[in-house]
Write a structure and sequence with these properties.
seven-stranded mixed beta sheet, four-stranded antiparallel beta sheet, mainly beta
Length: 123
């Protein structure tokens, strides 16, 4: 059974940093692209970043480019999202999701999802 478990969320002041982790199990990690999504209250789920199964391709939504960095560790079967220079508008529940072979733009295309971790950016 495929599982993705997010961790690392919390409360941080504007300008601060957090590192989210997505631990995976139950599927062949190296065959899957992993994406990060977020959903703020009253808003639709938004794609934030994705990393291809080979790590050769990474992409980011414009609002986080230059501030967030996605990476993956095949040995640990985990994906990370380093978030720097956080802003109040980054406040949301962050989810990781797995899709076979390549990154996709739409959440419905992903096969497996985690339960999410809350990130709150506030002074």
């Amino acid at each position: 059974q495929a599982q993705l478990v997010e961790s690392g969320g919390g409360l941080v002041q504007p300008g601060g940093s957090l590192r989210l982790s997505c631990a995976t199990s139950g599927f062949t990690f190296d065959d899957y692209a992993i994406g990060w999504f977020r959903q703020a209250p009253g808003k639709e789920r938004e794609a934030v970043s994705c990393i291809s199964m080979s790590s050769r391709v990474t992409n980011y939504v414009e609002s986080v480019r230059g501030r967030f960095t996605i990476s993956r560790d095949s040995g640990k079967k985990a994906v990370y999202l380093q978030m720097n220079s956080l802003k109040p508008e980054d406040t949301a529940v962050y989810y990781c999701a797995a899709m076979k072979f390549y990154c996709a733009a739409f959440s419905y295309e992903y096969d497996y999802w985690g339960q999410g971790t809350q990130v709150t950016v506030s002074s």
